[in-house]
TrEMBL record:
Listed PROSITE patterns: ALPHA_CA_1, ALPHA_CA_2
Residue intervals of the Alpha-carbonic anhydrase domain: 20-274
InterPro entries listed in its UniProt record: CA_dom, CA_dom_sf, Carbonic_anhydrase_a-class, Carbonic_anhydrase_a-class_CS
Coiled coil residues, start to end: none
Organism expressing this protein natively: Rotaria sordida
Protein name: Carbonic anhydrase
UniProt keyword annotation of Glycoprotein present: yes
Function: Reversible hydration of carbon dioxide.
GO cellular component, one term: cytoplasm
Catalytic activity, EC: 4.2.1.1
Taxonomy, superkingdom: Eukaryota
Cofactors (names): Zn(2+)
């Protein structure tokens, strides 16, 4: 018996390591070791305007700066580039009369070199973006993110898409400049340049977002996240995007396609804080109106068919 216990104790670090080991190359087996990854409230999802409901209680969210002099640390954790922002901001107006959510970190998801299309986790009208930023926050009812992580609606994550532009985004540049110094797994660096998260996202953008209940998009996939995905993307240049694509993950392998495939929305409801008038992307506007008119066309046809069937039955 004592020998058996000894073997278990000796094997424990290996068992724990195996459980914590996951990669984007084996997404389909995440649920084998992490039961939540196979749940019904998983993220990301495809965000469709015509399948969402307006919720007028969803107010403009905003970031409130805290008095922190902690340095900003950017780390390569083997899966992404993550900027730790502990004690720097709180996120307000997550829900009506809700508590504050403390910003813990931001991190990114992207595709790979020579792919300017894929990279984002969420999709907008079936369309992906080359980069998606996640701002991870936790409810101030909890003393830290680890305590909050597995509790219902204890996390609030804001997703922001990036689209390619000819000009580089100056607000993102302090992170881009530091990426070259964290090329390898486990590296970290302090950002000394002035990084302004509020200016990067922009106040107006925080008014228009999709909202749904979902999960962490990496193991252990806890279903504890209030998701807000901003409708309007930010911009970055292809040189800036390439800086992410050059990072190395575990075993010095290039970090690529760091996004989870979309999950079924199931019986969940998707809400939004905006109307179609607030959409400025003409392509998306066109797509939404064409699928609306198709829906209307279909419902008119169904009504006609119903009347016709009734008439036929009367005649018979
Ligand atoms: Zn993420």
């Amino acid at each position: 018996m004592s020998q058996f216990i000894l073997i278990i104790i000796l094997l424990l670090p290996i068992i724990v390591e195996l459980k914590e080991h996951w990669s984007y190359e084996n997404i389909t087996i995440w649920s084998h070791d992490n039961r939540y990854c196979g749940g019904n409230l998983q993220s990301p999802i495809d965000l469709r305007f015509n399948k969402s409901h307006i919720d007028r209680r969803l107010k403009a969210m905003y970031l409130q700066k805290q008095n922190s002099h902690d340095s900003l640390q950017l780390i390569n954790n083997g899966h992404t580039a993550q900027l730790n922002l502990k004690n720097h901001f709180v996120l307000k107006n997550v829900a009506p009369a809700s508590e504050d959510y403390r910003v813990e970190q931001i991190h990114f998801h992207w595709g790979h070199a020579n792919d300017d299309v894929n990279g984002s986790e969420h999709l907008l009208e079936g369309r992906s973006y080359p980069l998606e930023m996640h701002m991870v926050t936790y409810s101030s009812w909890f003393s830290n993110i680890h305590e909050a992580m597995s509790n219902t609606r204890a996390l609030a994550v804001v997703g922001v898409f990036f689209e390619l532009s000819f000009e580089s985004n100056p607000f993102l540049q302090p992170i881009i400049n530091a990426l070259g110094r964290i090329r390898d797994n486990g590296k970290h660096v302090v950002i000394n340049e002035n990084f302004n998260l509020k200016a990067l996202i922009g106040e107006k953008r925080m008014r228009r977002y999709y909202r749904y209940d979902g999960s962490l998009t990496t193991p252990p996939c806890y279903e504890s996240v209030i998701w807000s995905v901003l409708q309007e993307p930010l911009q970055l240049s292809s040189e800036q995007l390439q800086a992410f694509q050059r990072l190395h993950g575990e075993k010095s392998v290039l970090m690529k396609n760091t996004y989870r495939t979309i999950q079924s929305i199931g019986s969940r409801k998707l809400f939004r804080s905006f109307t179609s008038e607030n959409i400025h992307d003409d392509e998306i506007k066109k797509q939404i109106s064409s699928s609306t008119s198709y829906g209307q066309y279909l419902s008119v046809n169904m009504k006609f068919l119903f009347v016709l069937m009734n008439l036929l039955m009367l005649i018979a």
